[in-house]
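Morning!

This is the sequence you dropped in the shared folder:
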Amino acid sequence: MFTLKRLLSTKVHFIVLQFIVYLFSNCQLLPSLSYYPNSKLKNYSLMKKIVSLSLLLGLLQWGAFAQMYQWAKNIGGTGAVQSNALYVDAVPNLYTIGVFSGTADFDPSAGVANMTSSGGNDIFITKFDANGNFIWAKSIGGTSTEEAYTITADATGNIYLSGIFTGTVDFDPSAATYNLTALGTDIFVLKLNNSGNFVWAQAMTGLGGGNSFAIAVDNAGNVYNTGYLWGIMDFDPGALVLNLSATLAYDNLFVQKLDASGNLVWAESMSGLGNSYGNAITIDNSGNVLVSGYFTGIVDFDPSLASANLSASSEDALALKLNSAGTLVWVKKLGGTSDERSSSIEVDAAGNVYAAGYFGGTADFDPSAATANLTSAGNTDIFTVKLSAAGNYVWAKRAGASGADAATSVYLDASNNVYTTGFYQATVDFDPSASVANLTSAGSNDAFVQELDNNGNFLWVRGVGGIGSDKANAIAIDGTPNLYITGTFQGTADFDPDASIANLTAVSSSDIFLLKLSNNILPVELTYFGAMVRDKSIALEWEIVSENNADRFEIERSTNGHNFEAIGKVKAVGNSSQPNRYAFWDNEIRQAIGYYYRLKQWDADGKFDYSPTCYVTLRKLAVQVYPNPSGGMITLHLPNPQYYKYTLINHLGQTMREGEFESNNEIKKHTMDLTLLPKGQYILHLTLHNTIINQPILLH
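The structure's back. Tokens below.
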């Protein structure tokens, strides 16, 4: 492996990179060729070869690393409002759900989007763009009480939420009507499209009751939800009956699977002489169902005729894995001398499981015969735990002080870094190592967000709040990664976690907040990252606008976009207010369809962060462009429903066009008019989620 030295930015840097690529591809090693103050290329035939190579070069653009705080919004009204969950799609748009009473304005700008509840608590669903601009709000309600706790979406953008309702409720938020009537406190699952229009709703009714706390969708569009039931409930929302019965007067955890049309596939409950609750649910890449929550007493977690009994003298946290048919794979308990609850669960591409919540006293987070005890510092402490795909202990971390501290939500980024959010009191050290990272709340409760790496090592923590009670209820991340957090706050609270101030003042006794933070907090500013294929090698290049205390860049490569390996490193300048260019040459190309690359930038203090991923294909692209060469009108054939962002760059690296479009099962083509552009060679960069595809185009 040979690493090119740092290239300082000049007006001809684009050509200089191509020149170096040409020299190295012809085995002329010039290690001193690293600085080109005002280089001139005099050989015209060589120049033509160099420029022709630019057809294969793609630049991945992203915003410079900036301050953490991006924006904060609040929603309030005449009654109570509470945001329980959020979801971020690939665009990214932000969806939130929760409950409200009275009249609330769901447009946080100068505009007004009032909704008024029909009875007690009504359900709201909102959609905002990545800048926090209001798009739409919908309400679901009747004359009694309705609550929604969870939201998710499928690959085509349909939205799913679940919760409880009483009485008769119209689940169509439009002028049309779709009423469901509860026998008691019944469970619902609702599907809307990404414009908030009604698709279907299903109810699980019976002589008992229950609640649905979490919902998830698999790659085939099947819908899973979990919570608890008491008494007898019919979990087949169709004409048939599938009664599940809770044991005696206990609450029993359930898991239900519906197909994409809302028809029952299966439902199972966990019975015993104790209570059990499903608080969170997710699906792994193999279609297995992961549930976390808590239980007391003796509960059999095998829904078949076999048994898998666990016992707890107080509340113990649980992690449960079922296969796609609802058969038990394993169940684990995490508990100790006091109460433990898991409020959130995530799974990575390898099937490792991450859960977060709170615990008191001393709790053992190793579900095997071995021990991994954590002891709370006071009332309740925050825990984050990682288990393997087989349910074996990997690591567990805590944070807390003398007050009541809890994690409410956990989320993974593309690099499997672990983010938790929740609330804390007084002064809490969030670094689980011997080092200290204290936050001190301004009021009774403040909200926090913490990042650990995949090994449980502390990266950073931030807190927001004011003199009232401020709690974060949910977190989600886009591909940049930006962090989106929602919760509630009282009075006036500062939502800029750093030195600046971004105060919001609640309209009602407790308002909803929406907060966007950038995780680009390392002391570098990057402007682009690109890759090109040359014979059996790939050249990478990136530019840093400025550096402060930077140490090095590690280059990582993957064949699937999930499992990355380090393939080399480049030393950073360290401190510089001038643009610096870097490059790396990957000569170890094996048999593969393509490669994903990312940069891991380290600062001198041992902190690191990742760039977005750049994908280089080694075969014909699934996205086809024709005609190519073209006189100006080109058509893109898009085989899969996706949301695309595009950038068209000329041979000088200048952006000529940029925009976005979406394909679906009906519309699989997109036409672009490039007739006004000069003739020549271009690169069309198509970004899907956080992956870029480079497509050469020739206009003649």
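Headline: The chain has two helices and 58 strands.

More detail when I'm at my desk.
O.
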